Amino acid sequence: IPSFPSPPPGASKQDVREKVWDYLEASGLADFPRPVHRRIPNFKGSPQACCSVKELDVFNRAREIKVDPDKPLEGVRLAALQARKTLLVPTPRLKTGLFNKIVPPSGATKEILRICATSRGIKEYSVPVGLDGKAQVDLVVVGSVAVSEKGWRIGKGEGYADMEYAMMVSMGAVQEDTPVITIVHDCQVVDIAEELLGDHDLTVDYILTPTRTIRTNCKRPKPQGIIWHKASYLCWHYEMLEKIPILKCLRYREQQTGKDVTLQDEHSDLANAHTPAVLNEKAVAENTRPQAATNSAQIGQHNVESDSLSPRLGGSGVMTTVYVGNIPPSVRVSELKCALREFHATPLRLNWQGAQHRAFLDYKDKATAESAVSSLKGLSLRGNTLRVELAKNQRNKGQVEINSQK
């Protein structure tokens, strides 16, 4: 087995990653899925390392645990389920929200719990938890490519674990003293220069390997929220915001509270191009004025116009309607409008049917409607992930919906 080469002075994070990945493969320590490059690597002995978590007081005291979906952490997810703890797992690449809460079926056998701890089980036995999910995480478990005994951590380079933690801070789900654990092979515990760490990098308090439990006593502060102006942090630019709807939603919320959410200067041209669509109340008023002028219905009642699906509004061609369902009873139409503005999906007309927990959005053509559906995928309001799709029967269904309420 080749000896593990210590990272040389001046090595970058990527240098460290490549050395760890290469060594795991060359030494025969890498385990499925292979190759381990560009992943949080699985390794032979990961089940034993995961079992050590049961000996930690921070695990035994915890009621709600967030564990990343990586393969080497499967044993921790199983231990949490077996101990009847609430298990939260981030959604893949955060495309459909922040967390999935794993909910095993009533009377689940050991075998079913094992399935629940796998990627298949995360899909089959989970419910989404959004920004309003009121999560109170007592313990965070993350994967790593490399980690030092001081608690410095290097991930696979995409920044998701750092971002997930920062988002949990923003939503009040973790506190300053919430412990963080990582599971690695012994060879992944290496010297890491502190100058490689940024303010956004998550540090760890415990390192579990197949042979050791290391308490790092790390004093470096953990991220205090998302650092919007740092482009190095998950490549903060509008392209990434488009890919992660819940991130856009969080950015809008923090903007509403007065926090500076400006992205790095090099993207200011994009920011300037997008800002009016997000912040220009006058433009929104122009889009919604006909509705406001003709109907001042109270929240929970229908808020529609008799011609709200008329093709005349589209200018050229027939308008296309988008259905939005699973709207919580407590949500006001103003909240939905704010979200539509933030996600650049403001419709020509909004048909609010709060009592039925739904709304219909009219767009000038099919392409615009499909773009809105794509932008709004995964949008969560007050803990509910909304159902967003093209209305099944564009004109007839919509007209019946309206007429039936007159």
UniProtKB/TrEMBL annotation:
Region (Disordered): 287-312
Cited SMART domains: RRM
Keywords tagged on the record: RNA-binding
Biased composition (Polar residues): 288-309
GO MF terms held by the record: RNA binding
Gene Ontology CC annotations of this record: cytoplasm
The RRM domain, residue ranges: 320-393
InterPro entries, A to Z: FTHF_cligase, FTHF_cligase-like_sf, MTHFSD_RRM, NagB/RpiA_transferase-like, Nucleotide-bd_a/b_plait_sf, RBD_domain_sf, RRM_dom
The keyword Transferase appears for this protein: no
Name of the protein: Methenyltetrahydrofolate synthase domain-containing protein
